[in-house]
Amino acid sequence: MRNVKWPKISLLAIPTLFLWLKTYIAYKTSFSIPIDNVTQEIILFINPLSFLLIVFGLSMFLKEKNQGRFIFITYSLLSVILYANVVYYREFHDFITLPLLFQTDNLGDLGGSIVTLIHPLDFLYFVDVVILALIMWYKPNFITRPFYSKRVRRAYFLVAFAIAFFNLGLAEAERPQLLTRTFDREILVKNIGTYNYHLYDIFLQSKTSAQRALADGSELADIENYVRANYKEPNPELFGAAKGKNVIVISMESTQSFVMGEKINGEEVTPFLNDFIKDSFYFENFYSQVGQGKTSDSEFLVDNSLYPLSRGAVFFTHSGNEYEAMPEILNENGYFTASLHANNSSFWNRDVMYQSLGYKRFYDVEDYEVPEDETTEWGLLDIPFFEQSIDHLKDMPQPFYAKFITLTNHYPFEIAEEYKWIDEYDSNSGTLNRYFPTVRYTDEAIKQFIEQLKAEGIYEDSIIIIYGDHYGISQNHNKAMSQLLGEEITPYVHTQLQRVPLIIHIPGMEGKTMETVGGQIDLKPTLLHLLGISTKGNIDFGSDLFALDRLDYALQRDGSFVTKDYLYAENVCYSKNTEEPVDISKCQPYIDMTAKELDYSDKIIYGDLLRFYGENASKEQTDKRSNEQ
Ligand code: GP9
Ligand code: MN
After folding, report:
1. Residue boundaries of the structural domains of the chain
2. Torsion angles phi and psi, residue 488, rounded to 5
3. What separation in Å is there between the alpha carbon of 410 and the centre of ligand 2?
């Protein structure tokens, strides 16, 4: 035995092979990346390789004693990045972007939720790091540290780059315009690999930072024309229907439309809302349009009628921008504006962003009593939250615009037994099972709140708007969802699941179920028109949901969209009638329109263009423009 000759293997090959394999295993076990054909599988398999060859190859330029250290540190770092993506993906079905990493304020508060995302077997993700450390420490015989001549190094990198180009070529053939259409991170990762994706993300970050510095407002002309062309006159019957009324907005955490009217073991999930919609306008085809910024993105959409960003949360990345937000407009129209949310004021950077949006007052966790037995891990339960908020409401000068953000129905949807008024669902997903009792709890909280508003005499003087902020059940629970819905979760169904309830209650007006297709982007002009405030000349990407000549349309941040007759998702155009694919030409005009809308909205945010618009254009900037003319 002693004479057996083991094949020698270079120190450089080990980390490359290990991490290549680990990344591919992660793709297959921890991410659900859809693969349609063999080429896609080949791309997925080879995509980590070129990056790893290049990165570990850099060690060849180091002195021998530093090579091992460099390899080990790089290896550990990449392992942590991979694992962080695995954990993030479990909840968000998405990959980490650079701006997210700067949202560390939120991470502290998220503690509990993160712990539930870490699984016991996750240590397996680091077993290879230990093995690598042992190999480096004990330097077994089969490891060689060859001397890398200039020629060897040149050949090595030539091969590495050739593999990179081969990968990119295959990907580009599979998915044209891969890098210019980066709405969908899953497609990016699938084609260029996690590590190259992060490099690309860094490139995007530096590009967006430069965009503000270079912007001078000249880009606004096209955008203004576009927005003006899409402006819709308000419905004369409803314009000013709630003039001078208080505005009560309730953002329902993680509440999707599929819970409305749904029963678990014969019990309604939302008994109160099911009733309340009978005296309200209820929009069945209203879509959440958020990106990675979740609740904060929904607030951004509603207050600005601009789209949130494709990466990160605009509440963090662009809180210093100039906006023409709803609170600001309402302040000018004699309203007192406030947001009420029993969480830390810094969560989602709200304390900073709310100032830019014009909120006069933010009632945060400091304004509430939070007894231990009335909390979930996310903080104060919704019933005491609303109960205590009534006192705040009574203190506000009228008319007010008050936004309430609920919290109890938040992942992981855990709540004390005594508040579980309906049974859990029964499926393979604990998340979906627990979801229904917490939705039911929030329904009860809103019911009690409305009763209190009536008792305080506020109800009759207020218009009440209730909407869901975003999905609560991610794609990771598709199997359980399809059990619930009794159908497969195709891209069509997935897009339809982005519907959230929208309820608009106007005192003295009868209820009506509305089929209008719209999204959170449309709330600002809708509400302002109900209050009798004109929106002509505003840079709003949405339009009044009640407008008579409205275009039925709602897009998603990943480039998919829904119209009256069609739905477009993952490059397929579906007929809404049959839910079957139809010729892409049916969707083409809207594909182009969607790209344009997102591009224009992004330009405004990245370039901070509203500082050049209307009254915001300060003298200095006006001078800057006139000097250039
Ligand atoms: C946090 C709450 C939840 O304050 O709004 O945020 P989410 O995690 O849903 O974006
Ligand atoms: Mn939320």
Report:
1. 9-211, 237-558
2. -70, 145
3. 7
Q: Which residues pair with 514 in a beta bridge?
A: 283
The SS3 of residue 157 is: helix
List, as ranges, residues with CB under 5 A of the ion ligand 2. Answer: 253, 294-295, 469
| Both structure tokens of 307 | 């789209």
Q: Is 93 annotated as a binding residue?
A: no
Alpha-carbon span 311 to 532, nearest angstrom:
35
**What is the C-alpha separation between 465 and 3, in angstroms, rounded?**
81
- Please state at what angle helix 64-92 crosses helix 194-214, rounded to 10 degrees: 80
DSSP E strands in 53-99: the ranges are none
Alpha carbons 376 and 380: distance in angstroms, whole number: 7
Phi, psi (rounded to 5 degrees) for 44: -60, -40
CATH for the stretch 237-558: 3.40.720.10
Question: Ligand 1: which atom is nearest the Cα of residue 341?
Answer: 4
What sign has the CA pseudo-torsion 91, 94, 99, 101?
positive
CA 206 to centroid of ligand 2, rounded, Å:
29
| Whether this model's pTM surpasses 0.85 | no
What confidence tens digit (pLDDT) does each residue in 372-390 have? 999 998 889 999 999 999 9
Could you report the per-residue pLDDT of 210-247, keeping only the tens digit for each? Answer: 888 888 889 899 999 999 999 999 999 999 999 999 99
Pull the structure tokens for residue 280.
């309200």
CA-to-CA distance for 142 and 34, rounded, in angstroms? 39
Q: Is 622 noted as a catalytic residue in this protein?
A: no
For residue 294, give the ligand 1 atom closest to its CA. 10
Q: Which atom of ligand 1 is nearest to the CA of 254?
A: 9
Please give the radius of gyration of the chain, using alpha carbons only, rounded to the nearest integer: 27
With CA atoms as reference, report the closest residue to 424 among 434, 416, 432: 434
* 119 annotated as belonging to a binding site for a ligand: no
**Ligand 1, CB cutoff 6 Å, lining residues:** 253, 294-295, 341, 343, 347-348, 405, 407, 410
**What 8-state DSSP symbol labels residue 541?**
S
| pLDDT band, very low/low/confident/very high, at 614 (cuts 50, 70, 90) | confident
pLDDT (average), residues 161-189: 79
Q: Which of 295, 337, 406, 563 is catalytic?
A: 295
Distance 213 CA to ligand 1 centre (A): 31
